[in-house]
């Protein structure tokens, strides 16, 4: 696996949360946003809905809309403003790209 986009430097003593990213079991810390969880576990946040380019969020504060991800049940979440929860199952592929 390539090195993740983000590397945790502090606050690593918070409780651990288990989640799945594209079916792969991963770990985050309580209080992490989905964006933090995704980018400490991989290189990209999601696929672009307009092409094959990976996206990693832009503003990190809820303004740009670049960080929408989907749960396996179809719920769409803005990754930079949503906290992780135990058992979340995140899908990073774009539904638009899946239909191409
Ligand atoms: S990164 Fe801009 S809204 Fe989430």
Which features does this protein show?
100 residues, 5-stranded mixed beta sheet, 2 helices, globular, binds FE2/S2 (inorganic) cluster
Care to give the gist of this entry?
By secondary structure, this protein is mainly beta. The protein has helices at 34-39, 95-98, and strands spanning 16-21, 24-29, 46-47, 54-55, 68-71, 76-78, 89-91. Residues 96-100 have low confidence and may be disordered.
Question: Your description of this structure?
Answer:
The chain has 100 residues and is mainly beta. Helix content is 10%, strand content 26%. The strands form two sheets. The chain has a five-stranded mixed sheet. It has a two-stranded antiparallel sheet with strand order 3-4. Strand 3 and strand 4 form a beta hairpin. The chain is globular and about 40 Å long. The N and C termini lie far apart (27 Å). 23% of the residues are buried. The C terminus is likely disordered. The structure holds FE2/S2 (inorganic) cluster. The site of FE2/S2 (inorganic) cluster has 12 residues, from loops.
Basic shape: globular
Q: Could you give a short account of the major beta sheet?
A: 5 strands, mixed
**Tally of DSSP helical segments:** 2
Strand content: 25-35%
Strand line-up of the largest beta sheet: 2-1-7-5-6
| Mean pLDDT over the residues | 89
Taking pLDDT < 50 over at least 5 consecutive residues as the criterion, the unreliable ranges are 96-100
**First and last CA, distance:** 27 Å
The topology string of helices and strands comes to: EEHEEEEEH
């Amino acid at each position: 696996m390539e090195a993740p986009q983000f590397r945790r430097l502090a606050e690593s003593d918070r409780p651990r949360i288990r989640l799945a990213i594209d079916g792969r079991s991963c770990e985050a810390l309580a209080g992490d946003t989905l964006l933090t969880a995704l980018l400490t576990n991989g290189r990209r946040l999601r696929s672009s809905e307009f092409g094959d380019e990976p996206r990693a969020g832009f503003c990190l504060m809820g303004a740009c809309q670049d960080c929408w991800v989907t749960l396996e049940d179809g719920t769409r979440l803005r990754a930079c403003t949503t906290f992780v929860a135990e058992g979340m199952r995140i899908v990073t592929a774009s539904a638009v790209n899946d239909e191409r």
